[in-house]
Every structure is written in C-alpha cells, then in structure tokens.
Amino acid sequence: MTDSTPQESPDQQTFRKYCREWLQDNLPPAPPVILPQMAIGLMYTEQLDYLVQWQKSAFDAGLVGCDYPRNCGGGGHENYQRIANEEMHKAKTPYFPNVIGLGMAAPTLFYHASDELKQRLLPKLFSAEEIWCQGFSEPGAGSDLASVQTFAEPKPGDDHKWIINGQKVWTSLAHFASWMILLARTDKSDKYNGLSYFVVPIKAALGKGVTVKPLIKASGETGFNEVLFENLEIDDAYRLDEVGKGWQVAMTTLTHERGAGALVMPSAGGQADDDSDSSSISGVGDVLRLARNSYRFGKRAVDDPLIRDQLVKLLIRDEGLSRSMGVHNVDGLREHPSRIPMQGKLAVTELMQDAAALALEIEGASSSLYVADSNAPEKGRWSMGYINSFANTIAAGTSEVQRNILGERVLGMPKSK
Q1: Do the beta carbons of residue 370 and residue 396 sit within 8 Å?
Q2: How far apart are alpha carbons 46 and 52 in whole angstroms?
Q3: Crossing angle of helices 81-90/10-26, nearest 10°?
Q4: Coil, helix or strand for 356?
C-alpha cells in the first residue's frame, strides 16, 4: 500500500514503494556525534563522515539525482526526486551534507557546464564524495550581488588560464569543500555584463592561492568561512557559459536556491527529533507540543490565553502555507511558475523565526541555556533554532530582497529605486 497521489504514473508508484522499502531496510543508526540543526553548521570531520556515508548510500540506491540524466550520474527519470524526498522525510532520515552542491551547484552545472564537466563533477557531487560551497557574497557585496569585486583576469600570454584575486565571505562548508561555484568580475567597466562564473577546485589549491578562515557565529558554530584568493590560477575549462554571462548563470543558481527552479533538490531529514510534528512545514506543530508540555505560573503554557492567541495565529499561517504549496503542483491553479516557491522561501523562513521566538517565550528564562547544558529544555533546540533562523531569512537574498522580487517579477510592480 502506498500514499501515491492520483497524478502519479504506475512507474512512479512503483518507485515510491521501492523508496519506502529501501528506507525501512537501510535507515542509518543514530549518529555517533551531535549534529548541528542544519548541514551548513557542520564543524567536525566526524559529523561529515557520518552524513557523507548516508548520502552516498542513498545515491547508490537511486534516491539522489533521480531527475538528472544517466550520463551524468542521475537516474534518468522525470519527477521522481519529489517522491524520493517525500519518503525520506517520512522515514525521518539524517539530512544530506552536500546541500550547496545539491541545491545550487548541480542545477547550475546541468544548465551551463560542458558535457565533460557534467560527467566529471555531478556523480561525486550526488554521492557527497566531493563537497561544494558557494562563492558569491563579499564584504561589500551581499544582497547587491552584482557589486562583487573578486577579479578574474586572463593569465598574461596564456588565454586558457585565469588568475583570481579577491575575498568571499559567509561561505558555508568551505572548510570541507572540494569545489566552489564562484561569481567573479572579469570587466570592471560593466556591473552586470562584467561578471563571469567559474567552478574552482579550492581544496586542491589550499595554501597555493586559496586560504579558508572560519567565522564564528552567534550560536558558537563555525560553519561559515571567509575565503581568500591570491593569484589563484585555474583553467578556462572551469568557466561556465560565456565570459560576461556570469549574472545570467548566477540567476540559475539563485532561482534554484530559492526553490523556484525546474530541478527538484534532493532533500532528506527529520532524524534529529523523533517527536517532531512532520505535518508542520515550519515547526509550529512542535511549538504547540512544547506549549502542552510546559508550565507557566502553575498551569500549562497552552492554557495561557496570550500564548494560545499567538499559537493559533502561527498555526493558521502554517496551514495556509501548506495548502498554498499544494496548489503549486496543480497545473490549472498555478498562474505564475515562480510565485509560490519564491513566496514560500520568504514566508516559511519568517514563520520559522516567529515560531522559534514563541518557543523561547514559552520556555522562559530556561531558554537561555545552551545546547551543551543538560538542563536545557528540548536539548536547547529552540534557542539554537532562533539564532540560526536569522541566517535563513538572510540567505538567498534577504526577506526585503524577496519582497522586491515578488513585487517586480511576479506582480509586475515598478522597480524600486
């Protein structure tokens, strides 16, 4: 018996059954070390090794890269990745470590790289044998991405080589990464058409033109980094698309990062909290559970009318988002292909932040206890979640940028000045 939807073909229903049975037999054991809440917070080799083994086993079983062509490591199917993702989340698996690779680098390579690069890089990306990071943000170029100043210039006397100098910042997973997707300036006279896009083998170049330095977040984690380039030499074969087309290539990356791309990102997760409410897309269901199990002034937090009022408002938002995302899968109800995915990134990240803030209010003073404190409620989940929520509302463009994009590209409103 499967939970397949009426729109699924017999082959897709068979694949769903296969995914469910494989996961029942191959669900990884509990991790030997504490894992961060998100892959971009990975700090230690032991954490990475456990998750790489999981992603590789899922890839070998055909649950990762399902919709990519077979000749570049994919399954050669259409609309199968969504099914695999649903079954992995239902099974409450560990998350995948190579999130930058799966969500951003893979679709960018697929649409813009040479066949040789696709066949060389995608299989090890899918298997997590090679971790990827994103070289976009700089100290002077965050939301205004087109202002990047990291400069790539042809090597004098060799048109097949580039020399790169500059700095990238907030680079998640760079300390583990073999490869970076890099947006660099190749012409200082043109803001947009002066950008080009490269893939850079940064691990092979450590100490030879590449330096990676950790950045400590407010949470105490060091998943972010700054990456310095000093006369790094790379082959022209690592350039994606034409010189000066970097902005267009970057739009492919960002569209998929925001969940509005044509290719579905392989996604797993749910293992960390066996009691979590998998029906909630934002964690609001877990805040409701917390309110039922927490006491304030001698009574349950859920019986406090102020807490109940905030909970109901969050639950309404959560249900509305869930139903809105369901509409996106119905062709006749989808008036704009990007509206719901881009709206979802904005609305879900802000709802997750508000849910975590309410959880801290419910926990009261004990919410200040850190994850390493045995007295921390729910192992410090909500305090860490609240701190990390700000990364989610900033990454892939701040909430303000997302509102501008929705207004201008979806609603057709005039551009902001």
Answers
A1: no
A2: 10
A3: 40
A4: helix
CA-to-CA distance for 124 and 126, rounded, in angstroms?
Answer: 5
pLDDT at 276 over 70: no
Q: Hey, what's the torsion of the CAs at 217, 220, 221, 224, to 10 degrees?
A: 20
Residue of 130, 221, 257, 363 marked catalytic: 257
- Output the pTM of the full model: 0.84
Q: What is the pLDDT of residues 344-396, one digit of tens each?
A: 888 889 999 999 999 999 999 999 988 878 898 888 889 988 998 888 888 77
Residue length of the chain: 417
Domain 284-410 listed as CATH 1.20.140.10: yes
How does pLDDT run across 281-299, given as a tens digit for each residue?
A: 568 989 999 999 999 888 9
> From residue 154, how far is each of 233, 236, 249, 380 by CA, in Å?
9, 9, 20, 50
CATH topology of domain 10-96+116-129: Butyryl-Coa Dehydrogenase, subunit A; domain 1 (1.10.540)
Q: Is 86 part of the annotated catalytic residue set?
A: no
Neighbours of 130 (CB within 10 A): 21
Q: What is the pLDDT of residues 144-199, one digit of tens each?
A: 899 999 999 999 999 899 999 999 999 999 999 999 999 999 999 999 999 999 99
Domain locations along the chain: 10-96+116-129, 133-257, 284-410
